Amino acid sequence: KFCVLIGEDESAVVCPVIDVIEWNTFEYLGNAGEPQIGGFDWRLVFTWHVIPEREQKRRQSKTDVIRSPTMAGGLFAVSKKYFDYLGSYDTGMEVWGGENLEFSFRIWQCGGSLEIHPCSHVGHIFPKQAPYSRAKALANSVRAAEVWMDEYKELYYHRNPHARMEPYGDVTERRLLREKLRCKDFRWFLENIYPELHVPEDRAGFFGMLKNKGMANYCFDYNPPNEHEVTGHRIILYPCHGMGQNQFFEYTSQNEIRYNTRKPEACAAVDSGTDYLTMYLCQDNVQNIPENQKFVFREDGTLFHVQTQKCLQAESNSYNGNPAPLLRPCSNSEYQKWFFKERS
Fold this sequence. Notes:
alpha+beta; Spore Coat Polysaccharide Biosynthesis Protein SpsA, Chain A; 26% strand; 2 domains; 6-stranded antiparallel β-sheet; Trefoil (Acidic Fibroblast Growth Factor, subunit A)
């Protein structure tokens, strides 16, 4: 079937549905349900998502191919002629990581299409521990950002400050390839191929480490247990490390405190009857933002919670032995004064 699709459209790159083979038992864990499509977050980490409604409407039947913004990598079929035309793999990348997103961006931006065929299933063993080094994954991602993401690469660097310092080699030839193929810009990719991805505002002075004046060198910190449990946990204060990731927050023009380094994005909220901050899913529709997720960042540095009319205050030993931001009656205390710093 792959060959038929590629024969009909040489610019199509087709991926199978990836099933899991249990690494220690070789049990085949097939998935009879609807496939998911590939995406990414602003750390440039590949993610899986449900098929959006717009794509469901485009398809005529359940056996039609599914357009996907990105691929997981490694498992795909492409015409050799078209693969060479697109520039094959970036030979400046090494071993593992980043190449799947780079190739995905290139396919779409340079006139191709990336599709998942729901009738094709390939089993894949995800080893408990990789038998090779992944030390070059960061440099590979930086190469992808530098060649294909235009000004949006700054959203990646804001969340990964260390990536800005990573040596990534010479990308002159890859940029010339993009120019030669007359590829579209990254804004086009976001608007037309992946409109479901929230694009952060990252307004100057309103993103980065969220620090407290009274509790020096302590930052908002949110570290969910795994990629599948991004919401439902509380924010603590932890010594600032300047590495972004779990200490990267953004204050939006919609009065949200967003944790948007990964998908799905989480917003700080105050549960009824508590004074702690708990993270819940953000609402992309402005009209749907719950009142308990709205904070006003006032000129004096206080974070004023609209619903309770209280301010966030840094307090020590307040949650499982850690300092944490809690709602308290507003005052002039330095422990109620907050500010953003992009990096340490």
